[in-house]
């Protein structure tokens, strides 16, 4: 778990001190180096910084577990259409005149977007 960690505070002389670094919380050596350097920069005890980094690690691990659980949880399916809209759409798809609506003549296609009404051709009579 790679994170940016920043420590700030006032040292014993009242000066504002700051230390920030990017480290992998799972890597002991990186954590130990951060604790040592941060304690030096802000003039604090290593035990204090070590404890706070441990608390941060615990909090981050919990957030990570929650996020993973949210992603893996079954999602509630929401319908994009009401039942009436779905019935109307299926009726349109089953309509035998549907192909005629899309069998536009090239001249009709030239008028698409021009504001002219497009009238689909009448279906041919089977007789």
List keywords for this structure.
127 residues, single chain, two-stranded antiparallel ribbon
Fraction of residues in helix? 40-55%
Number of helices: 5
| Secondary-structure element pattern, one letter each | EEHHHHH
* Residue share in β-strands: 5-15%
Unreliable runs? none
Got a strand count? 2
Q: Over all CA atoms, what is the radius of gyration?
A: 33 Å
Average pLDDT, rounded to a whole number, is 82
Choose one word for the global shape.
rod-shaped
* Terminal CA distance: 74 Å
What class do helices, strands and sheet pairing give?
Answer: alpha+beta
Strand order of the largest sheet: 1-2
How many domains, in number, for the residues?
A: 2
Largest sheet: 2 strands, antiparallel
Question: How is the secondary structure organized here?
Answer:
Blueprint: E1 2-10, E2 16-24, H1 28-42, H2 46-72, H3 83-94, H4 98-102, H5 106-110
Antiparallel strand pairs: 1-2
């Amino acid at each position: 778990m790679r994170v940016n960690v920043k420590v700030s505070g006032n040292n014993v002389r009242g000066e504002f001190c700051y230390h920030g670094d990017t480290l992998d919380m799972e890597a002991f050596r990186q954590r130990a180096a951060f604790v040592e350097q941060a304690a030096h920069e802000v003039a604090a005890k290593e035990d204090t910084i070590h404890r706070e980094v441990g608390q941060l690690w615990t909090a981050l691990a919990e957030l990570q577990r929650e996020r993973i659980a949210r992603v893996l949880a079954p999602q509630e399916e929401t319908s994009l259409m009401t039942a009436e809209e779905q019935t109307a759409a299926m009726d349109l798809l089953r309509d035998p005149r549907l192909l005629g609506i899309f069998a536009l003549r090239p001249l009709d296609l030239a008028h698409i977007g021009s504001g002219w009404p497009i009238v689909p051709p009448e279906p041919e009579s089977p007789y």
